[in-house]
């Protein structure tokens, strides 16, 4: 096994590398202006035609022009080897050892709620969980103290940015490292730096370790999902990803080992999603919210519960960001309300499932003290 793979097995510090950027020339800016002037015609057209007819017409009539693309995501040899090794790991956890939950934190800096998670994991047997953290070292160098559960759990990472394939690529690296690191990892949970737990570890473990399905949101298709399908160009996703197969959903999910292996093994669908979006579509370019739901919908939609277990409030969202819970809102009533809420199951909703939210986001970093004050007698008390 190569030294780079051993780095994942020991969760060594970050691996640095540079992402190239392409500059737009003046002629391209002229083309951009022309495209933007045409957008009102598109809006008028959609107002007078059904969504289905709109998508069919667009597929055949939009220009297949990729000249305004930014940078394609390209794996280096180390990352390719990591994904290859991960795709060949044992798909079945040990029948004699306890199943483990792999908590995978994706952050660009530190984990502001690390003390809360420390308390969360303090209740847990070490044989029941593992931790992996992807940190953008170009933004922050975070070194957890030696007694922290996060010590030596930072994986080889790369810079990430919104409106690009880098966040989806980071999640794939987290999955690959978790697969290689521990054969007993059964359920893989993607979490953000602004996430908090809503229940005790015992409750969380019971919910996920006893499930034979992944939890990943797949929202019903609408005109917005069609625009997300064509953000790289009208015909770019074909033939690998037909619009009928395309889905969107929350960036945060919980996946079984089987589905984690399907993701790290995938090259065909990923070859499309790692392409950059057209410049004038960047504001709706979120590959991390479409790659994973689409792949699972294509490969094993019935093996998934079409919902995320991470609560988020999109009321009053700004710039693609959900509502932020502030420190003055923190209290038993808020935690109770978030626990009482139930996920939306999209096209999979038969009215029979009532899964609990296990996590919630986004919380302001200055709310840590308020959360710690109610951790033991509210958050971790089920």
Automatic annotation (TrEMBL):
Coiled coil: none annotated. Keywords: Glycoprotein, Glycosyltransferase, Membrane, Transferase. One of its GO terms (cellular component) is membrane. GO terms for molecular function: glycosyltransferase activity. The keyword Glycoprotein applies. It holds the Pfam family Branch. This is Glycosyltransferase BC10-like. It is a single-pass type II membrane protein. InterPro entries: BC10-like (IPR044174), Glyco_trans_14 (IPR003406). Its main location: membrane. It comes from the Eukaryota. It is found in: Membrane.
């Amino acid at each position: 096994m190569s030294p780079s793979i051993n780095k994942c097995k020991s969760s060594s510090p970050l691996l640095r590398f540079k992402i190239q950027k392409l500059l737009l020339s003046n002629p391209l800016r002229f083309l951009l202006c022309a495209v933007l002037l045409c957008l009102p015609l598109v809006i008028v057209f959609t107002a007078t035609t059904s969504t289905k007819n709109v998508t069919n017409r667009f597929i055949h009539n939009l220009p297949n022009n990729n000249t305004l693309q930014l940078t394609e995501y390209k794996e280096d040899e180390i990352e390719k080897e990591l994904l290859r090794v991960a795709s060949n790991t044992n798909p079945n956890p040990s029948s004699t050892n306890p199943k483990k939950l792999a908590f995978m934190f994706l952050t660009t800096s530190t984990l502001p709620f690390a003390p809360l998670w420390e308390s969360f994991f303090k209740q847990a047997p070490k044989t029941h969980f593992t931790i992996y953290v992807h940190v953008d070292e170009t933004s922050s160098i975070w070194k957890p103290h030696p007694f922290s559960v996060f010590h030596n759990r930072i994986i080889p990472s790369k810079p990430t940015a919104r409106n690009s394939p880098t966040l989806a690529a980071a999640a794939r690296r987290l999955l690959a490292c978790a697969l290689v690191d521990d054969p007993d990892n059964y359920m893989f949970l993607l979490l953000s730096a602004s996430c908090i737990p809503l229940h005790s570890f015992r409750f969380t473990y019971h919910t996920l370790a006893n499930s034979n399905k992944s939890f990943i949101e797949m929202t019903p298709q609408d005109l917005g999902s069609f625009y997300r399908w064509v953000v790289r160009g009208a015909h770019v996703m074909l033939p690998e990803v037909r619009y009928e197969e395309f889905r969107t959903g929350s960036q945060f999910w919980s996946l079984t080992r089987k589905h984690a292996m399907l993701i790290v093994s995938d090259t065909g669908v990923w070859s499309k999603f790692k392409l950059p979006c057209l410049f004038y579509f960047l504001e709706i370019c979120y590959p991390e919210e479409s790659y994973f739901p689409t792949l699972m919908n294509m490969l094993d939609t019935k093996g998934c519960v079409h919902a995320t277990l991470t609560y988020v409030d999109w009321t009053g969202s700004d710039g693609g960001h959900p509502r932020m819970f502030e420190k003055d809102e923190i209290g038993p009533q808020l935690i109770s309300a978030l626990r009482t809420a139930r996920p939306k199951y999209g096209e999979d909703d038969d009215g029979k499932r009532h899964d609990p939210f296990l996590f919630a986001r986004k919380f302001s970093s200055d709310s840590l003290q308020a959360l710690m004050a109610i951790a033991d007698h509210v958050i971790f008390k089920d």
